[in-house]
Design a protein that fits this description.
It is a single chain. With 71 residues, the chain is mainly β. The chain is 11% helix and 52% strand. The protein is built from 1 helix and 5 strands; from the N terminus they run E-E-E-E-E-H. It has one helix spanning 62-69, and strands spanning 13-21, 25-34, 37-46, 51-55, 58-60. A 5-stranded antiparallel β-sheet has the order 1-2-3-4-5, with helices on one face. 6% of the residues are buried.
Length: 71
């Protein structure tokens, strides 16, 4: 007889946010934990208008940042 299948593992997702205001830029840091994996996302908004997004210090697009850090 085949072995019974294990129940699907529940996905636990936790997102926390911290905002740091500096003289020339605002940094939004989102810590994302999915089960036992942890990622650090950053959005850097400069007063001159530039906005940059990072995942674990690697450049990512705005849609990637928004999608992967939503609660």
């Amino acid at each position: 007889t085949p072995e019974p299948k294990a129940p699907p593992k529940k996905i636990v997702r936790i997102v926390t946010e911290q905002i740091i205001q500096q003289e020339k830029k605002r940094i939004t840091i989102r810590n994302v934990s999915v089960n036992d994996r942890h990622y650090i996302y950053k959005r850097e908004e400069y007063k001159w208008g530039g906005i940059f997004y990072y995942k674990d210090n690697v450049f990512v697009s705005e849609p990637t940042f928004e999608h992967e850090t939503e609660p």
